[in-house]
Amino acid sequence: MARWKVGRFFRLISLLAGLFFIGVWIRSHFANDLLTFTTPHGTYVEVATIPDQFRITIVEHWPKRVGLTFAPVSQLPPRYPVFGQGAVYHRWFPLGFAVRRGARAIEFQYGPMLFLHAAPTVVSYSQWAIPFPLPVSLCAAICFWPLIRRLLRRRREEARVIRGFCSQCGYDLRATPGRCPECGTERDLRLKSLARSGR
After folding, report:
1. Which of 25, 108, 195, 198 is the most exposed place for a label (fewest CB within 10 A)?
2. Per-residue pLDDT tens for 93-134?
3. CB within 8 Å of 68: residues ≥ 6 apart
4. For 14, how many CA atoms within 13 A lie in the half-sphere containing its CB?
5. Contact indicator for 60, 124 with CB cutoff of 8 Å
């Protein structure tokens, strides 16, 4: 019973996550969003959406503290460093994602006055480019896994009965029809008819 409740909980979470990704996927065609923050260890994390794809960029040793910020890219200052808008070309991109590593010179502004800038700082970054169909497909697979598993089990049972084996444990019942002497399973009448018809 507890296992069933845990499975149901994960399927519900997967359904909600799938709906969320689909909503962001649709929105990515009309607006590009940016979520940024820095970790306590000084790692800068940027999550940007572009049409049909979102990009996660991680920059180590970010010199400026950034709180959790979410905004459309169109509302950001012109000099704001957005990593996720560059092109990503990889031969293995059809596998579902791509990884790009590089370096970029960033000019940080200090103080309220626009002309107070430090010298450009070169930072190294790694970026994951993930198309939206990938997380949506994973969430859908988790939601539909019980149905898929039931169909696969049914096909396996039918294949066993057609060959004259027990549908549950696979014991050879051609010499002992009826109840399986190995696991005690009764042969289902519908499966018996399948066995007789040779389907």
Report:
1. 198
2. 555 678 888 888 887 665 444 444 556 788 889 999 888 988
3. 35, 36, 37
4. 17
5. yes
∠ CA(106), CA(56), CA(80), 5° rounding? 30
pLDDT band for position 199 (cuts 50, 70, 90): low
**CA pair distance 38, 21, nearest whole angstrom:** 23
State the pTM of this model. 0.68
Mean pLDDT value of segment 46-64: 89
Residue 157 · residue 191 · CB < 8 Å: yes
Helix (H/G/I), strand (E/B), else coil: 33: strand
CA distance 59 to 169: 54
Give a three-class secondary structure readout of 111-147: CCCCCCECCCEEEEEEEEEEECHHHHHHHHHHHHHHH
Q: What is the mean pLDDT of the chain?
A: 79
